[in-house]
Design goal:
alpha/beta, 6-stranded mixed β-sheet, 5-stranded mixed β-sheet, 10 helices, about 35% helix, globular
Amino acid sequence: MSIKVEQLKTILDETLEVLRNESTQYRPHSKDGYPGGVVLLKPNLLTCIIPDLHGRQDFLLNVLSYKYQDKKILDLLQAGEIQFVCVGDGMHGESRVARRWQKAYLEYKNGFQNCPNMAEEMNENFGTMFKIMQLKVKYSELFHFLKGNHENILDESQNGNHPFAKFAAEGPMTKQYVKQFFGEVFLNQWNHFEKSLPLLAIGSNYVISHARPKMMFNIDQVINYKNHPDIIEGLTWTRDQMLQSNISRQMLNELLDSGQPTKFWFAGHTTVKEQYKHWVEEALVQIHNPDKQSVVLINNGVCLDLKEKFYHVD
């Protein structure tokens, strides 16, 4: 999907307008009046959880064309019969394009004078995000994209963010490319988009975030997340070895109705080798396998177990 600059600027403006005006019915507002960090999912509605995309625009398109109970997912969305939660990390290809990142790094060191590899990477990233934004604008109450740790276009080390480098210097490379070819105004608008994203989605008996929680946060703190960089970091950057014991289960008990005997916390961020990894004691389900295109589908609003909840869409 090749996206023209003006198309991207237009959809970015439209998405910012939607995010600024999200209804309190599904996104409670903060004390300062802005849409907060929590999305309240519709009960009794089929829910699709999409793990980290990392520029895999084909993954998103495959989700929409996948048939669930003889109906295409896109048709269900158009009929208002399904809601989506993407766990974030829309940009930065992972191991599948590690070699390309290394070639692009040399282009970066040369000032992007000639940069076919970086251009290919960014075309995938913006193609993916363009489709996400289209869906958000058209189906604002049904399509939600959470902030991940890769939603940091400025590659900053503040506001709950940390600079990023894995296969090359992805963070500074992306910032420089966008600034150089799209301009500083666009760069800052994209930063504003990232900082307008929610952190958490709450269903009937499950919660979704980019990363597993690092520590206990209550719902008011998450709603007012812009005043709490530790919450942003604590729901987007946590690795397994970084957290206090049993936090996800404790937060589930804090956020969900006490009458729900079975509860799950779904998260991406940390890669898994299987289709998913279930930490039973933590009530945590990690769903990010970068080598698979697999989503979670929860019918009737309640997830009683993990059987037949994961679907390959490729």
